[in-house]
Design goal:
The structure is a homodimer of 211-residue chains.
Chain A (H helix, E strand, L loop, with lengths): L21 H21 L6 H8 L3 H8 L2 H14 L10 H17 L1 H16 L1 H27 L9 H19 L5 H16 L7
Helix pairs in contact in A: 1-2, 1-4, 1-6, 2-3, 4-6, 4-7, 5-7, 5-8, 5-9, 6-7, 7-8, 8-9
The structure holds a DNA duplex (30 and 30 nucleotides).
Amino acid sequence: MEQETHLTESQPASPGTLRPGGRTAKVRRAVLDATQDALADTGFHALNMDRIAATAGVGKTTVYRRWGSPVGLVTDLLHDMAEQSLPASDTGSLAGDLRTNAELVRATLTDARMGAVFRAVIAAAACDEDCARALADFYRTRLGEWAPVVAKGEARGEIPAGTDPTELLRAVSAPLYYRFAVTREEVTADVAERAVTAALAAARDGVFIRA
Amino acid sequence: MEQETHLTESQPASPGTLRPGGRTAKVRRAVLDATQDALADTGFHALNMDRIAATAGVGKTTVYRRWGSPVGLVTDLLHDMAEQSLPASDTGSLAGDLRTNAELVRATLTDARMGAVFRAVIAAAACDEDCARALADFYRTRLGEWAPVVAKGEARGEIPAGTDPTELLRAVSAPLYYRFAVTREEVTADVAERAVTAALAAARDGVFIRA
DNA sequence: ATCTTAACGGAACCAGCCTCCCATTAAGGA
DNA sequence: TCCTTAATGGGAGGCTGGTTCCGTTAAGAT
């Protein structure tokens, strides 16, 4: 993505950075929307720069210049998704908050559109290092947003002091994503509920105490 | 993969089934080996039928005819991997067996060659339904092989009666695969150990009792 | 308002992937 | 052993996806 570390010849450093105003932003929005549509529709393997350009109503040269390849599109989409993340819940109990979290994850993965997008993103990350980094960042952000929920639970004495917040959150998400991406089993509400109960039981046993 | 349900015109039903003898088998072996090499080397996105044919020392027409596409290759590789699965361990304690299992998974995912293969397989499954089914079958098989370990633990009274064996096993694997495929964090021995402890704590609490 | 030039867009060009055709090889049965 | 035909293999040709060229549009500065 980033290049031209020392731009001696006044080379344009990655299009869109010097003049991010009106048109450029509009183009990005249109392209990313088209990308999401395409992923939801036909999946990552069928992601095609030409089609994206056409449905976005944008010159295909622009798409190639700014994103370079299908993985480039997905990577940028991921950055975009990381920016617009929603805040965590606050039900008053850790169990309740975690349940909300798990249900949110489940709803996302189960949703036809979002499920397809996440599938595509995971596939793209498996193919490309840049994309993998973007995906890692995305989840670092997401986990960071929910960490306070665990801290509050700890303050209320619902789990032992010293519990690693993100570790507990990972334990909640893991069974859902595992089924979604790896074993391809259905992610039911039951699964989500059990993930919360199991993670909480382990947390109370002090399994997630920071080393 | 399978087609020609009613072969009225004596169409050859998927090449390799009527004459699976010497040459055909040799070709399959060579192609699957080449596929694994390629995946370990350059990953799924760069998987190229022509190159596979060349390195396998096989006509490229053959590769296209029998496997059709990169996902087809990965799907068959997966079937091949499912066939040659190794038996579960028996250390005498459930904790020990689960630890062995987790360590085995970790070693596989961490191994440069096998890690790349699994990454590719997950990516391919995200792109193609046939491949997804093959992947699901693979894990169904694997989980089935380890289920007795849990049953024995239950018999020894290490976990409550009625515990769902595969559910417990999934809980052990999930955190490892979640990091490997989704958040792309490093899968350390520490992570594996914690996965076992957490799963076991939940199991003892009766979280995985069959509904 | 005017100017500079970043960014976009159309179209021709190039290359690598896939398909088809037909000759060749060797399984499996008599 | 011989015969039938499943399966393989080389090569030509077409198509689709990706690249390059250059003219056009409009963002941001004066």
